[in-house]
């Protein structure tokens, strides 16, 4: 495995964790119930920890997080999607944590350079997936209002899910196998939550590519502007 | 539907193997599954536990402080239940 | 909602067989002997009301206090600082929860307390009505605001009411990192670039006086102090604690290389304490009345989070009702299978 491949994969995994952690951090002070403030922050902290390990494999974590331009970020478009309501956040969590758990389970079992990180992270991610599933069940099979909101969220985010199964350079993974397992796992939870499995394509019609190629959605630039502003305003300063 | 407050749960945490569960505090949750998860996030986020029990607060029956005397005082005058009650000659070992 | 049997006051059980005076004597003796009062013990109504008011205000302060710091989570200038700040704001939510639990042992409910917060019938610490304008404010809050809070809170670990004292033990243990991270943050800024140093000084200039106000009005004007001291809810007077805080901060500011914005701050050999200038109590009362820079903003955000979350709380309650999961053996059995639970011996015992 060459150094270039290693970098691409570490950035893809690291940016996923960094960006989703940032989005979850935006919930602080806004969660629907105090117990969820604590739960969402726990998940955000796990992800930030993963991001720091992965980015540090490539270089200086802060330079990578704060000084890269938008096009250099390799995260999935799914994780950069704005929080929306709690249903959107839960749908995003369900889709991503199911994927991340499958991916990290494979990486932990192999003996590549990500095995150590993956072995630790897979325990964290199992909890994230459980959290997302518990809430998917309650929102889907709760009230009419929550069912409607959760159904809409699952549908809206569906088109960002195909990107997850695009092969990432440097990761020796059975991507088709992961996709099948993901569809089965998410499909099962949605059914139990009395939700319809969204129809329609799992990717947008634009052929220019997506997050893994450095192409992002409109809200991502604004997210980065906020995240990077202070760091960039004081070049070379330590914090 | 008008929002009704989630019920209250008491949380017991075993801090490490070999110790019994100790009351840690309480929290609100709609059901047992979320109560357990909320307890994990709230009471063990610094690695304080290896096992958690959650019990609906309403399920606890407690002794009344008014009955403190009849409940607990009779036990106070039975010193023969304690090993220190007995005189053993000096030098006798393993007793 | 039914209050837990473990929490329900004993005299509500209809088992009372002492008269009020006898109860009061037992209560007074317990307080005098430095014993803890526990939830089901008889207590004077005014003691109960004082505790509910104080614990609720304390809980509300933790929850509202998340906002000024959360304001900087998305802009934290390094990933290390971001993790620290997220963990700290999360702790504040946790501390709010411990305190609401403690208040609930007195026969109130969290919903009732939140409603009083949202409608302005209960207060939170006025300090959180000040804005966090720069990153250095995160440091100043940790050092000064958390420092003042700790000075106030450490004696509360010996408060006469058991559940409150126990919550405070847990909170104080967790809070020691809050103050240290703030101090470290300011230290880094103070010894950083000239712009960073100026940012740190500006933050200390703005937070110093409001922090001194956190100890409450001077002793001769404090409405609740004397009775609270007699009940051992409070252990030291406002002025005593304020003086202790000033004495601690002066040398800490010197180590930081920052100045405290008070020209009257001088060591008084005779008293063995630092003298400090007069506090602007007009500002204190104005902010308390609602005229601070952020009163409206803080309450609006809190209310919005609560209102926007209603459908989520409803959904979970509806799901629980549908699946009859509340406390059923079925639900426990399903949750018991988690990877980390040592369930085999658990089940035998439970």
TrEMBL record, chain A:
Q: Would you indicate the residue range of the signal peptide?
A: none
- A Pfam family matched by this chain, by name? PaaA_PaaC
- Domain of life here? Bacteria
The name under which this protein is listed is: Phenylacetate-CoA oxygenase subunit PaaC
Can you name the source organism? Streptomyces glomeratus
UniProtKB/TrEMBL annotation, chain B:
- Kindly name one Pfam family recorded for this protein: PaaB
Q: Which gene encodes it?
A: paaB
Recorded protein name is: 1,2-phenylacetyl-CoA epoxidase subunit B
Q: Which InterPro entries match?
A: PaaB, PaaB_sf
Q: Which domain of life is it from?
A: Bacteria
Automatic annotation (TrEMBL), chain C:
Gene3D superfamilies hit by this protein:
1.20.1260.10
Q: Name one Pfam family in it.
A: PaaA_PaaC
Q: Which residues form a coiled coil?
A: none
Region annotated Disordered, chain positions: 322-350
- Which InterPro entries would you find in this protein's record? Aromatic_CoA_ox/epox, Ferritin-like, Ferritin-like_SF, PaaA, PaaA_PaaC
Protein name per the record: 1,2-phenylacetyl-CoA epoxidase subunit A
**From what organism does this protein derive?**
Streptomyces glomeratus
Which gene specifies this protein's sequence?
Answer: paaA
